[in-house]
Write a structure and sequence with these properties.
The two termini are 38 Å apart. Helix 6 runs antiparallel to helix 7 and helix 13 packs parallel to helix 16 (443-464). The protein is 50% helix and 12% strand. The chain is elongated, with a radius of gyration of 29 Å. It is an alpha/beta fold. The protein binds one RNA strand through strand 1, helix 1, helix 5, helix 7 and strand 11.
Length: 576
RNA sequence: CGCGGGGUAGAGCAGUCUGGUAGCUCGUCGGGCUCAUAACCCGGAGGUCAGGGGUUCAAAUCCCCUCCCCGCAACCA
């Protein structure tokens, strides 16, 4: 079920902010890697929406290719039946991880087929595609061709490494995956990729932010500098793919098919003026999220295809690193394989999302482990953030009868001068830091900035010791009562005012913190806001205004509730 | 010359581009507090920044060499 942006909230004329994940190949279920990309994209999309951008998040499935056809036939069902049976696994997984995608595209959908065909026609008409006979080796599982030259290089390398480029039966092995290659001879359509090396290099130079992080850009640049070969973009040996209109018997190479999803999902190739308007509004994409293994497709082939078709290029391709599980002995036999949904059950949706975004530098490889995940969960979420909420809500309940305190602006200003307001100051400075971090796709940085405010608030409680103020305030109240005077008539702030001041600041701090945490931890943030008597923070589209200090209205009642992130032990999460 | 990542306190990392008292989180030890999820706050211990050489007034950071580890085999991102 797609998540719908409240378009009334979004600035009507503002630029769309279009983000994509790769479309995932259906030969398997969602795993840690796909979940990582998808959750990261979701967090950015939510942050952008919260900041008033018209964000549009696309994910989906890559359902074509020979491997799919083979898997289906092994199961004795049609390819369509097979992909239909797999698609719900992804849809359910993204729902369970609280991914707010706006659209979910499947390459077997008619809108996509239409888009791919339109794209092929466009390239054909402008002469970017030609026909030629291919004779040589082909890796069926990878759907990749290899030239004699490539195989010769591979043989040389294999020999030096003490391995072999051929198996016992004398068949060539795939340089990429090591499985045997097939010899094929077929007529293929080729895309003139070789024409684009210079234009691509010029683009990289002119748009230093196009490929991130930098290390990946360097890789791509040196690859392209080595020269590009024309790319075979059609297949004739099987038919599970998009038929190419002007070449009967030919279907699209899966990668070309797959890349076009970024266009077909937003109306490309449609005759409907509404679709065309949508396309104009959304394209070019602001960011394609990809794993570092597929940067060549996204940073070389894809932009070259777009150049050929006369379309603008996406603003950024961000390649994140891999999650490494070294050190942690895992395996199906041990029964402790890290499965996204299982981890989310242990640590809650929010705990899961937080861990991967806060503890790993997005863009670099990260080592992950259950043990570390438990540490981060307990330290940041249970002890720091969750416990802060408990402390503040409990004290408000205990000392103020659960009511958000009212202070005259005059009193508040006087107390700020007298006692200082470190939380307000830090909170006001948070917006710029937070947005800058998100713009740099630095989740760890953004979350660390929020955690600073959490830590400062916990310290603030120690500094102000509300329990001590409460006792004095109690005495003050009793004394006033005995003397028959009202504290309301006091000229200077009373001790009771001081107590209200401190607790108001703390309540306001948790309101603001929850707001900033919302893109990464939607469920718990929403719950905190509910306990403060507020609505869903994610329905807002004005982060700056919403986070302005003093936004919490007095008079409302709070609800204490249970621990937001209960502490967990190793036994709870199955370590041991 | 296969490609790529990396070696900084017990663990995980930042700092390296733009040289200048070695920093963060967790753990650990001691103390404080009591509002709270045995949580929170303060303080301490713990590192010759893999090794060697060079440049420099000064190197974790720049240059050269050596050693070691990891991914490229999986549900692959």
């Amino acid at each position: 079920m797609p998540y719908h942006v409240a378009s009334e909230n979004a600035p009507a004329a503002g630029r769309s902010y279009y983000l994509t994940t790769p479309i995932y190949f259906v030969n398997g279920r969602p795993h840690l890697g796909t979940a990582y990309t998808t959750v990261a994209a979701d967090a950015l999309a939510r942050a952008m929406r919260l900041d008033g951008r018209d964000a549009w998040l696309l994910t989906g499935l890559d359902e074509h290719g020979q491997k799919v056809a083979q898997t289906a036939s092994a199961q004795g069902i049609s390819p369509q039946q097979w992909v239909d049976s797999v698609a719900p696994l992804f849809i359910d997984a993204w729902r369970d991880l609280n991914v707010s995608y706006d659209d979910f595209i499947r390459t077997t959908e008619e809108r996509h087929v239409r888009g791919v065909q339109h794209f092929f026609n466009t390239l054909y008409e402008c002469g970017a595609i030609y026909k030629s006979v291919y004779q040589g080796y082909y890796c069926v599982p990878d759907e990749t061709f290899f030239t004699d030259e490539q195989l010769a290089e591979f043989a040389l390398a294999a020999e030096e490494a003490g391995g072999a480029a051929k198996n016992e039966s004398g068949e060539w092995l795939c340089p990429d995956c090591g499985r045997p290659l097939s010899f094929v001879e077929e007529e293929n359509l080729f895309f003139r990729l070789s024409d684009y090396a210079e234009p691509l290099l010029a683009h990289y130079r002119g748009h230093p932010e196009f490929i991130c992080p930098e290390i990946r850009k360097n890789e791509v640049v040196s690859f392209v500098q080595g020269g590009l070969r024309d790319l075979s973009i059609s297949r004739t040996s099987f038919d599970w793919g998009v038929p190419i209109p002007f070449a009967p018997g030919h279907i699209s190479y899966v990668w070309v098919d797959a890349l076009i999803n970024y266009l077909s999902a937003i109306g490309y190739g449609s005759d409907d003026p509404a679709d065309q308007a949508l396309f104009t509004r959304r394209w070019p994409a602001q960011i394609h999220f990809v794993g570092k293994d597929i940067i060549r497709f996204h940073c070389v082939i894809w932009p070259a295809m777009l150049m050929a078709a006369g379309l603008p290029l996406p603003e950024k391709v961000f390649a994140h690193g891999f999650l490494l599980t070294k050190g942690e002995k895992m395996g199906k036999s041990r029964g402790n394989v890290m499965q996204p949904l299982e981890l989310a059950r242990h640590f809650t949706q929010d705990g899961y999302r937080y861990y991967f975004l806060a503890d790993i530098q997005f863009g670099a490889d990260g080592s992950i482990s259950l043990k570390r995940m438990l540490q981060v969960y307990n330290a940041d979420l249970a002890n720091s953030w969750g416990n802060l909420c408990s402390r503040v809500l409990n004290m408000t309940n205990k000392y103020l009868g659960g009511e958000i305190p009212e202070l005259w602006p005059k009193t508040y200003a006087a107390l700020s001068r007298k006692l200082g307001n470190p939380l307000g100051e830090l909170a006001e400075a948070l917006y710029d830091k937070y947005i800058a971090a998100f713009e740099a796709i630095d989740y760890a940085g953004a979350l660390a900035a929020v955690l600073e405010l959490v830590d400062r608030a916990n310290l603030y409680i120690e500094e102000t010791a509300p329990w001590t103020i409460a006792k004095e305030a109690q005495k003050e109240t009793e004394a006033a009562l005995a003397a028959g005077i009202s504290l309301d008539d006091a000229k200077a702030p009373t001790i009771n005012d001081q107590l209200c001041f401190v607790l108001y600041n703390l309540l306001e701090a948790i309101r603001v913190i929850a707001l900033y945490y919302a893109p990464v931890m939607p469920a718990s943030s929403c719950e905190i806001w509910r306990r403060l008597g507020l609505g869903d923070p994610l329905a807002l589209s004005n982060l700056k205004a919403a986070s302005t200090w003093g936004g919490l209205e007095a008079g409302g009642r709070i609800e204490v509730g249970d621990a937001l992130f209960p502490r967990k032990t190793e036994a709870d999460v199955g370590i041991g």
